[in-house]
Amino acid sequence: MPNKNLKDFDLAELRKLGEKPFYGSILFTWLHNKAAASIAEITALPKTFRADLQSNGFVVENLQLLKRADDPDGTRKYLFNLPDGQKIETVLLRDGDRRTLCVSTQVGCRMACAFCATGRMRFRRNLSAGEIVDQVIQVEKIEKTKIQNLVYMGMGEPLDNYENVLKSIRILNNQAGKNIGARHITISTCGLVPGIEKLADEGLQVRLAVSLHAATDAVRGKLMPINKKYPVADLRRALQNYQKKTGRRLTFEYIMLDGVNDTREHARGLLKLLGGLSAQINLLEYNPHLRADFRPSPRKTIREFWWITTDRGFATAIRYKRGQNISAACGQLYADN
């Protein structure tokens, strides 16, 4: 029988493990606020209860840091080993005193986006809720700092691992634990319509970011295979419904690819698609890697695209390359170094 990782359990579940519910509260606090690496370290609990947990197959599993890499721009990347030997990458973005952690949700990815290194990997498995949460625990422990913002934009498609992602958010959002505010958490998706529809009914005040990258099926279908299953019109309907139910502003990520999706016509098509939606547009400077042949759009082209969208009233930001020197930038994660 496989071990049961206590980090996979939320507070309510931990409180049901013993006769005294407050034992579960102690467990939760020590796991998430004290970064206890084993049951033996949780000395606030009676020895008998700790022994019972161990005899019933409960453990505390920890990601193992294999390598840390630093970019001159302040970005830091971590290569972690999972308990079964699989590997993932996690990225810390630093902006003054602000700390944002980009977490992975899968080993590999099924989505196979043409521009993404992770998409070139063979999908191996989903991460458990505890493995997602532990990326935050371990980075805070390593850096002796507090993570204020969390983005589910690392390896994998978050909505393809829906239940574990949502559970990890609830664990990390819990005031008794990391207490990361829901409005400081962003879920990114390539456009899994059923997941978006389900998320609309969760009652969570998280941010939703959509990796769009093209406004037409003709272009998006070549870049993102998922578009063939959920074309642009279906995606827009799901997002309209999401916004109607949640009242939340949407973020659209748009990678600028030279000669592919960066013309004035493409900009006008994007404006047409997003008309009527409350949206923030992020224009991403493409991060080249050896697993794709795309080129980044010239910065002059990116600025012109920005001007067109801004002139029509959309809040638009340009996100220039960060973490490029250590392969930690958007679309570069591969867990191979």
Automatic annotation (TrEMBL):
Biological-process GO terms, alphabetical: rRNA base methylation; tRNA methylation
Location of the active site: E89 (proton acceptor), C330 (s-methylcysteine intermediate)
Needed cofactors: [4Fe-4S] cluster
Gene3D superfamilies, per database record: 1.10.150.530, Aldolase class I
Record-listed [4Fe-4S] cluster binding positions: C109, C113, C116
GO CC, any one term: cytoplasm
A GO molecular-function descriptor: tRNA (adenine(37)-C2)-methyltransferase activity
Coiled-coil features, chain-numbered ranges: none
UniProt family annotation: Belongs to the radical SAM superfamily. RlmN family.
Protein name: Probable dual-specificity RNA methyltransferase RlmN
